[in-house]
């Protein structure tokens, strides 16, 4: 979907790797992948032209919760262009909200796939061709006698058996990070942690499945052949096995793949659990780590079931910066007992730690998360239904001492203060090592003023 839900749209445009993985398992069919995040303007006319030329028999649509409004628009355009086309929806939102989506009067889709699609999507195609029964397709929701029935969920896939992603079927392929050609690689899937705000366990359960390192290297070699300059590792929690992560970094160096730079998301506890990991990442040319810090107060660390990681947070940031690796720090505010001082403390800690790029989100009651049920029960969700605002950077809750409007304004005011502070730019990785880096960071910062005034910062600027 075209929705860009953060203030980093000038810095990074990320492809959907999952669609490429599904396409790799449709070897007997013509496939096209469209990442509408690269279209943004005049989407309707662009999409109608593409559908008129390719005329598919089956259209698969993947969306997050905040993108589902756009997904409905794409379905309507598809029906208008090709009245007889079959439509299947999938992804996080479909998987975690399937009962609600299928219960409407007349859903625009014909099928819904819950969970992983690499096995289920080809099986659906076989059923459409008459080669198997619809009832045997794992995780499929489908109409029988006018009513949706929900097949049992499939078992988690053996990722060792998955094909390398097929990126050649992309219609659009100009993804970038600071104007450098970028792409994604997955080295593991799932997470065993129990963070209350996260949707991953709702998608995969408590699991952690790893690809063979040889397979990871083969995929990276393919990206290098394609001229990729920056690689984002999209693992849910790669540092669950820090020793394996270090082995991947060492293999990157061994195979001469450190001419590409790497970005990754990591947990605080995991990144410091192996003393050799961060030096290995530096040798492999990891230039940025998104560090899941989340909270700085004991009460919130306990709420998120993170444990007391404050000392390790400082250790992780210092080690990464010492080895020349930028730190993007992820924080979450807006928990039930947060007051003004608690939220200000988050920003003070981010500044004190010398985070290169603080990324502060408001706790968001995403479908399928435990924290949604807890916040709804406590009466703290101010917007339970308009999921287009569930971007993480728009507050949809209140706290016991702050209204929703106060929370929005406070979060944005503190962002304005920290991003316009000279101390943020002093020694900042993105300012020192990126062409136009300071300008792009500064331009993004002006979006916080809109959030402070209106409370709807970073609404996607795409137009159908």
What does the model show?
The protein folds into two domains: 12-150, Cobalamin-binding domain (Rossmann fold), CATH 3.40.50; 159-454, tm_1862 like domain (pyruvate-formate lyase- activating enzyme). Helix content is 39%, strand content 15%. The chain is built from 20 helices and 15 strands. The strands form three sheets. Strands 1-7-8-11-12-13-14-15 form an eight-stranded mixed beta sheet. A hairpin with a 2-residue loop joins strand 7 and strand 8 (180-185). Helix 16 runs antiparallel to helix 20 (447-454). The radius of gyration is 22 Å and the shape is globular.
Q: Let me know the CATH homologous superfamily of the largest domain.
A: tm_1862 like domain
Total count of helical runs of at least 4 residues: 20
Give the total of domains.
2
Q: Quick one: biggest sheet?
A: 8 strands, mixed
User: What is the CATH C-level name of the largest domain?
Assistant: Alpha Beta
Q: Roughly what fraction of the amino acids lie in strands? A: 15-25%
Give the CATH architecture of the largest domain: Alpha-Beta Horseshoe
User: Roughly how much helix do the residues carry, as a percent range?
Assistant: 25-40%
Distance between the termini: 11 Å
Question: What is the residue-mean pLDDT, rounded to a whole number?
Answer: 88
> What are the low-pLDDT stretches, counting only 5+ consecutive residues below 50?
none
- Trace the largest sheet across and list its strands: 1-7-8-11-12-13-14-15
